[in-house]
Amino acid sequence: MRSLGIDYGTKNIGLALSDESGTLAFPFDIIDNDDMLVERTLRIAKENGAKRIVIGESRMADQDNAIMKKIRTFSDALKKAVDVDVYFEPEQFSSAEAMRFQPQKGKQKRDDAAAAIILQRFLDREVTQPDAR
Question: What is the CATH number of the domain that holds 7?
């Protein structure tokens, strides 16, 4: 099953897609976080055959951090707009890890690579712990 991974940021949203078997995640795109975010995200999911969405969960010391409220609002809006399964996957250090493998060029961020890392963690956990979802 193909999945869409999301690294949510206040300015940019990193997107990743899995392969059709739901085994490997790949960076896909970076889009603006604006008023059309929910509609654009759902269009991208539909156009690419993604049946579920995995969003990076931003927490520190087992507590939501400042951006998590916005992430939950975004998640709720996705669920309300269309019947789609939305999951959270811890995103700790995904951006730092993405920078290790795709060094920053100028000021461009690698949010799509971070989204791929988040999605890959979800896919890997699904294989090793199928009942954990």
Answer: 3.30.420.140
